[in-house]
Design brief:
Layout lengths: L1 E6 L5 H13 L3 E6 L3 H4 L2 H8 L15 H8 L2 E7 L1 H8 L6 H8 L4 E5 L3 H5 L1 H12 L3 E2 L3 E4 L5 E5 L3 H14 L8 H5 L6 E6 L4 E2 L5 E2 L6 H12 L3 E6 L10 E4 L3 H12 L4 E4 L6 E3 L28 E3 L3 H7 L8 E8 L7 H12 L3 E6 L10 E8 L5 E8 H15 L1
Parallel strand pairs: 1-2, 1-3, 3-4, 4-5, 8-11, 8-13, 11-12, 13-16, 16-17
Antiparallel strand pairs: 6-7, 9-10, 14-15, 17-18, 18-19
Bound molecules: cytidine-5'-monophosphate.
The site of cytidine-5'-monophosphate (C5P) has 12 residues, from α13 and β16.
């Protein structure tokens, strides 16, 4: 595919080198169009060497080829990363004072812009109004990440990681042809205006200040579900036990135990349209949490020698968060509830048999059944799942696919239910 990588003059221009690499390695034909100030951060030679193509910034080079029209017209995708406050303002007002802005006016393909700047500039009403204008015209604006900025300060304004931007580009290219300024918004952002809650990771149930009962869930599937929902326009709360980076624009609530997760989910679910329970919630927790580390030897036996026997740990049941959500729903059956189930086949039935029984038992709308065991699912980047729907005999098979692709399939099913 023909991709135009526009680079505006911000320090994050260096991250666009990695994005360029990812795009070319994926087989795309990338033309880099930096602004004049972008070249003060990363020079023309770097862009030319990495893209394998000549680089222009002004409309006066190779005039016989009419580059200011041709580059935009031929593009399958234009991505601007970083998009500075100045570039957003020029694009929003339709200016055409350099090659990148003329490309933006002539392009009829999907356009992605990733703003990056200081928090004050990003939050200024002028910048926000420009972003709204561009979004209304169908530009996919990727919200900036929060974190350390160029100086000592931190806040929203960081360019999201190149891999994340690459994923957005990949999805836009897949979605394809609808022009950026006509009917794309609804088609490209099917979850726009929806509030969704996603849980991720395995809960940790403490035994003492040092030890916990846990499980092998990596949280990758939950984080991918949150990223895809955000890219499709949803307002996302991600309740997670893991430290994995969250996609830009996703509100993260960090928790550790099942009880903390329950509290966070019930709070966030109050005005949610969808809750996706991808977390591996521990069914049991230790009945008591020791205030101090449990010692290898404890007390002393009848003969005065230290007692080296293993302590007994008694467990109590954790609440089933998903079942609680389903039970608390009113007549409108909102929110849509999606469960995940890790299953293995055994003598009493196949993975699908167990999945169907669980869907009936839990009463949720969708159950995504993961086949686990023999190196599958946990911590890997690929996954094979069966998506089951309440009241339907059909099974949607997805995979082997990346966790992002699985997420896309799950959100497609959910979008049908909304
Ligand atoms: O019953 P099982 O643990 O296999 O069900 C898995 C589904 O139920 C997952 O969606 C998981 O997040 C959810 N669950 C829950 N609370 C629990 C146990 C599981 O919400 N205590």
């Amino acid at each position: 595919m023909k991709v135009v990588l526009g680079v505006a003059g911000g320090i994050a221009a260096y991250k666009a080198c990695t994005l360029l690499r990812l795009l070319t390695e994926a087989g795309h034909d990338v033309t880099v169009v930096p602004t004049a100030s972008a070249l003060r951060f990363v020079g023309e030679a770097t862009w030319a060497a990495l893209s394998g193509r000549p680089v222009h910034t002004d409309v006066w080079s190779d005039i016989t080829e009419v580059p200011h029209v041709r580059i935009g017209q031929e593009a399958d995708l234009v991505v601007v990363a970083p998009a500075t406050a100045d570039l957003l303002a020029r694009a929003a007002t339709g200016q055409a004072d350099d090659l990148l802005t003329t490309v933006l006016l002539t392009a009829r393909c999907p356009v992605v812009m990733a703003p990056a700047m200081h928090t004050e500039m990003y939050e200024h009403p002028a910048t926000q109004a420009n972003i709204s204008t561009l979004t209304e015209r169908g530009v996919h604006v990727v919200p900036p990440a929060s974190g350390r900025l160029t100086g000592k300060d931190s806040g929203p304004g960081r360019l999201p990681e190149p891999q994340e931007l690459f994923e957005v580009c990949r999805r836009e290219l897949e979605r394809g042809a609808a022009p950026a300024h006509t009917d794309r918004p609804a088609a490209a952002r099917p979850l726009a205006g929806r509030r969704v809650v996603v849980t991720a990771g395995g809960t940790r149930e403490p035994l003492d200040p040092v030890r916990y009962l846990g499980n092998r869930s990596s949280g990758k599937q939950g984080h991918a579900l949150a990223a895809v929902a955000a890219a499709r326009g949803a307002q996302v709360v991600l309740v997670t036990t893991v430290e994995l980076a969250a996609s830009a624009g996703v509100e993260v609530v960090s928790v550790e135990t099942a009880l903390e997760m329950e509290h966070a989910v019930l709070q966030a679910a109050q005005d949610a349209d969808v809750v996706v329970m991808a977390a591996a919630v521990a069914d049991f927790r230790p009945a008591e949490v020791a205030a101090h580390k449990i010692k290898k030897t404890h007390g002393s036996g009848t003969d005065g020698a230290p007692d080296t026997s293993a302590p007994d740990v008694s467990l109590v049941r954790n609440p089933d968060i998903l079942a609680g959500l389903v039970a608390a729903r009113g007549e409108d059956s909102a929110p849509v509830v999606v469960g995940f189930a890790a299953e293995t086949g055994d003598d009493s039935g196949t993975v699908l048999d167990h999945g169907r029984a669980k869907l009936a038992r839990k009463g949720c709308d969708v159950l995504v059944v993961n086949e686990v065991g023999s190196g599958r699912a946990f911590g890997t980047d690929d996954n094979t799942v069966h998506v089951l729907r309440q009241g339907s005999e059909d099974t949607l098979e997805v995979g082997p696919a990346t966790k992002t692709e699985v997420s896309e399939a799950v959100w497609d099913v959910v979008a049908d239910l909304l």
